Amino acid sequence: VLSVLILLLAGSLWGVAEILPVSTALHCAFGALILLAARVAVPYVGTSLLIGLVVCMFKTASATFMVCQWTGVLSLTVSFEIMHALFRSRMSTETGRAVVIGAGTCLLALPVFTGWITLVAAHPYWIEGGWVRIGTYALTTTAPAMLAGMLLAPLGIRLENALVASDIAVRPPAYWFGGMVLVATWSIALLT
Q1: pLDDT averaged over every residue in the chain
Q2: 185: which of 12, 20, 38, 104 fits an S-S bond (Cβ 3.0–4.6 Å)?
Q3: Residue 124 CB neighbours (<10 A)
Q4: Residues above pLDDT 90, as percent of the chain
């Protein structure tokens, strides 16, 4: 029950961040932070994909839904799974691992996203823009996302470690608080 609540909360909090009018780079970096924090709490392969699906449902429920955003969120979660599998045990420090996974997730999401959106979804905006649009996106979104991911991703691990150390997650009020946060985030999605 606690693992499901954590995954729902993580996806919902990331979903709220997705409807904020900030740059895509910050959305990506915040996504990396959430994915790392959730992976510390629920250490199973594939959990980031479940979080991504919650974010996609959140985006669908809000008025700001676009197929490109679904593709971006799922590209980020797939990239996170790959980067986490490659680097989860190869770094000597937890912070170093988080920096590499955070930046690498944002970098790897670029070819995953552009490949899917142009070759599979055949989205006219991306096809018409060609390599120039992809290159511009890499410079204006992916590069800042990598930098932000390097800074924010370690916070995800620190946040989760602090929560685990405090044993707050195993106390009954934490379940009630988690439920209230879920209701609040989904209310925001439905009202925007």
Answers
A1: 82
A2: 12
A3: 9
A4: 28
Structure tokens given for 147: 């930098």
d(C-alpha 129, C-alpha 139), whole Å: 15
Q: Which two tokens stand for residue 40?
A: 């510390």
What are the structure tokens assigned to 80, written together?
A: 């996170």
- The whole-angstrom separation of Cα 12 and Cα 61 is 11
Q: C-alpha distances in angstroms, 161 versus 38, 65, 172?
A: 11, 33, 19
Q: Which tokens in the block code for residue 182? A: 């879920």
Report which of 12, 87, 97 is spatially closest to residue 50, judged by C-alpha positions. Answer: 12
Whether the per-residue pLDDT at 188 is higher than 70: the answer is no
Q: What pTM value is reported for the model?
A: 0.82
Question: Secondary structure of the chain in the HEC alphabet?
Answer: CHHHHHHHHHHHHHHHHHHCCCCHHHHHHHHHHHHHHHHHHCCCCCHHHHHHHHHHHHHHHCCCCCHHHHHHHHHHHHHHHHHHHHHCCCCCCHHHHHHHHHHHHHHHHHHHHHHHHHHHCCCHHHHHHHHHHHHHHHHHHHHHHHHHHHHHHHHHHHHHHHHHHHCHHHCHHHHHHHHHHHHHHHHHHHHC
From 16, 40, 41, 162, select the one nearest 101 (Cα to Cα): 40
Residue 52: CA atoms inside 13 Å, Cβ hemisphere, count? 20
Please give the structure tokens belonging to residue 36.
């790392």
